[in-house]
Design a protein that fits this description.
75% helix, flat
């Protein structure tokens, strides 16, 4: 497996560095077997190079758009939660969880453009 990873990582088909191609190939290969293990393995192999921080890029127009999406996701989630109290639905519960994640992601995007 590791020999194959070295061969795959050595191929220059993108602007990614060799270490990044190695992490991508490793994660994709392990994901075929177990997604959780692939996630953890990818994090470990990446060595935290990004540090979880995204550089801010102030852009007022993009900030307003992302803020609108954030508010929309929160609003739809609130309306769905109200509906769910009267009409139980496992599918709706799943959709509301996805909306919660989306709202959090939109919040991060707004912070990026703030």
């Amino acid at each position: 497996m590791f020999g194959g990873l070295e061969l795959a990582a050595g191929v220059q088909t993108s602007n990614l560095g060799k270490a990044d191609r190695y992490v991508m190939a490793f994660t994709a290969g392990v994901a075929l077997w177990n997604m959780g293990a692939a996630y953890v393995g990818g994090l470990v192999n990446s060595g935290g190079r990004l540090g979880g921080k995204i550089r801010r890029a102030p852009n007022p127009a993009a900030y307003r758009r992302a803020l609108h999406w954030h508010k929309t996701a929160k609003n739809v989630r609130a309306q769905g939660a109200t509906f769910l109290r009267k009409h139980r639905s496992e599918d709706l519960e799943t959709a509301l969880k996805a909306l919660e994640i989306a709202a959090g992601s939109f919040k991060e995007v707004t912070e990026h453009y703030e």
